[in-house]
Delta-aminolevulinic acid dehydratase (Marasmiellus scandens), 328 residues
Amino acid sequence: MDISSVLQGGYHHPLARKWQAQRQLTKSMLMYPIFITDDPDASVPITSLPGQARWGVNKLEGFLGPLVKKGLQSVILFGVPLKCTKDGRGTPADDPSGPVILAIQKIRQLFPTVYIACDVCLCEYTDHGHCGLLNDDGTINNTPSAARIAEVAVNYAKAGAHCVAPSDMMDGRIKYIKRGLIDAGLGNKCTLMSYSAKFASALYGPFREAAGSAPSHGDRKCYQLPPAGKGLARRAIQRDTAEGADIIMVKPALPYLDIIGDAAELAQDLPIACYQVSGEFAMIHAGAKAGVYDLRTMAFETVDSMLRAGATLILTYFTPEFLDWLEA
Ligand code: PBG
Ligand code: ZN
């Protein structure tokens, strides 16, 4: 055997295998997506998302307490309004007595160390289920959409969110939100995480079921990116960086590792987040249940691929499991 042929000496030991990673997963890289509903005493399991539930604000202490003890450091909140009256502009999104604003206040009070991000979108709150405001012909009305999204984001920040994360994909909303935060005196108190490269994916099904946010007509292909659109994703990442985003996100994660790599290159001075979405989580569970692989091994393999591609922050429904697995 020639000297230059032998690599195995470098990874024969488990510890030496760990050293092969440029970055290892730590608890601080995990952000846990949670669903907050408007029945304060609810804890309703979501059948398509194993282990996940819709929570009422009164249940947050019992739900999050044990996770915080295990090292949970951040959450991202999604509102699931079931009782409110939805309308064309998503009025319930920033209702001061709605589930998201109540949950921000509750979590800040219960767990002062936990970093609270809020997803900002209108689809859970509009009667048509689209992520922005519509023209009469059903197309997106861009400028008022961006203005309304910014209004909601600022109201979440005022309620105490440490981070606002717009997932609507309306052009120009990052600039609107940043301006709004600055004008409200919150520019230096709230992080702006942009879902910059969010693709029109088949992997959002379980989420839409959980959040009740499927569009009543049409689809989201005129605002979410086409899956083959690498160039568009690169342009969106550069635009959002220029408009004032503090963190760039790619979503979904596993089928878009090249885009995570692009984001790490194009926005190299910003943290790069990726969202292992509901369909990815459900798929990994389904494969494990079918005996295709071991759940834990596969969960680590997927997350390691995201770190390898350049992510520094991972939004995943596996967060509670990883908090256990990272102990061992
Ligand atoms: C709403 C939103 C969606 C997700 C996050 N925010 C669904 C969508 O765009 O239809 C998906 C999250 C997931 O699937 O886990 N704009
Ligand atoms: Zn939406």
